[in-house]
Amino acid sequence: MTLPNAETQSPPIRPEYHRELTPLHDLPLERPLPFSTRLWNQAWLRKSLLLLGLLLLWQAAALWQQNDLMLPSFTQTLRAFVDDVQSGELPSKMAISLVTLLKGYVIGSLLALVLSALAVSTQLGRDLLGMLTSMLNPLPAIALLPLALLWFGLGENSLIFVLVHSVLWPMALTTWSGFMSVSETLRMAGRNYGLTGLRYVWQILIPAALPSILAGLKIGWAFAWRTLIAAELVFGASSGAGGLGWYIFQNRNELFTDRVFAGLASVIIIGLLVESLIFATLERLTVRKWGMVK
Question: What range(s) does the ABC transmembrane type-1 domain occupy (predicted)?
Answer without folding.
Answer: 90-279
